[in-house]
Amino acid sequence: MIPVCRTEDLPEGGAVRIEIDAATPAIAVFRSEGALYALDDRCSHQDASLSEGWVEGCQVECPLHAALFDLRTGMPSCLPARRPVRTHEVTEADGMIHVRPAAREPAAREDAYA
Fold this sequence. Notes:
9 strands; metal-binding; EC 1.14.12.19; Rieske Iron-sulfur Protein; 35% strand; mainly beta; three-stranded antiparallel β-sheet; dioxygenase; iron
């Protein structure tokens, strides 16, 4: 598990971006409706940071083209996004939030993000 931040540093409706290393995609950690969620911090439609999006309920809206993603599953619920984003395990213990990155999937074709 990788430490993200102190629990008190992630407010309700907030997000924090973590970068692990050059080989691992950045991860966005969200707090919404009292729960914690973690997704790859890259919209599957174009290269936009989901941690800079708007959180409402169990969804985050991409700040670039308004695609919506379910924080629980990573599934998009409207266009222009068609592909889900990867989810990660996130826990809270002893006043700290931690994330366990999911295994990487094979690289997608570039035209899959169109």
